[in-house]
């Protein structure tokens, strides 16, 4: 399984449809400050169902829609499509290629689709939940987050590792039981 294609339409600074074809292995996005590198990463998290406007570096969800520039008017919707190569069957769906699409309209309406069929956010979450690329997994490490981890104390760092490994909830439960 690997991410094969990412298309942004009206998402943040990407007013015109922008297509990024990805290959297996490591992809590097390079460019000057403010050119939209982090916006690409935001698009990836967003299409996979991210619900927190803060995680997307905005104040409200509407901020992901192209807000316009001096030469170009604002747009009414943002749309991101992510195609995942599933020829190894890692995703629990009978397609060798899966395209997830998320659309948000400025009037507040929103839509998800899997391979062109409209679906619920829950369906997207379930599709990705065991793949290691879903929301709760720490697959998107934001700019500056790495620095924060490196400068953390031992306790905080341990917490982060435990959370990533999925054992924090068990430790919390154990601590609660011992207090009783
Ligand atoms: P750096 O190297 O500094 O981290 P970057 O390449 O990661 O830069 P981004 O943060 O991805 O840059 O892009 C920032 C740009 O995106 C800013 O110019 C900002 O105005 C623009 N931008 C963000 N949201 C929107 C929006 N909704 N509409 C239009 N432009 C937007
Ligand atoms: Mg950046």
From TrEMBL:
<protein>
    <recommendedName>
        <fullName>Chromosome partition protein Smc</fullName>
    </recommendedName>
</protein>
<comment type="subunit">
    <text>Homodimer.</text>
</comment>
<comment type="similarity">
    <text>Belongs to the SMC family.</text>
</comment>
<feature type="binding site">
    <location>
        <begin position="32"/>
        <end position="39"/>
    </location>
    <ligand>
        <name>ATP</name>
    </ligand>
</feature>
<comment type="function">
    <text>Required for chromosome condensation and partitioning.</text>
</comment>
């Amino acid at each position: 399984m690997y991410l094969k294609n990412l298309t942004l339409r009206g998402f943040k600074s990407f007013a015109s449809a922008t297509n990024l074809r990805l290959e297996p292995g490591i992809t590097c996005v390079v460019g000057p400050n403010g050119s939209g590198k982090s916006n690409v990463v935001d698009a990836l998290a967003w299409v996979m169902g991210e619900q927190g406007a803060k995680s997307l570096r905005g104040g409200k969800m509407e901020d992901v829609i192209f807000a316009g520039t001096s030469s170009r008017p604002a747009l009414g919707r943002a749309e991101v499509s992510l195609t995942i190569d599933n020829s190894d069957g890692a995703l629990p769906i009978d397609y060798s290629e899966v395209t997830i699409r998320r659309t948000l309209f400025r009037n507040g309406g929103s839509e998800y689709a899997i391979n062109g069929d409209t679906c619920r956010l829950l369906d997207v979450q379930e599709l990705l939940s065991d793949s290691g690329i879903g929301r709760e997994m720490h697959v998107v490490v934001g700019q500056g987050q790495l620095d924060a981890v490196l400068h953390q104390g031992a306790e905080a760092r341990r917490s982060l590792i435990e959370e990533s490994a999925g054992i924090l909830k068990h430790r919390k439960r154990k601590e609660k039981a011992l207090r009783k």
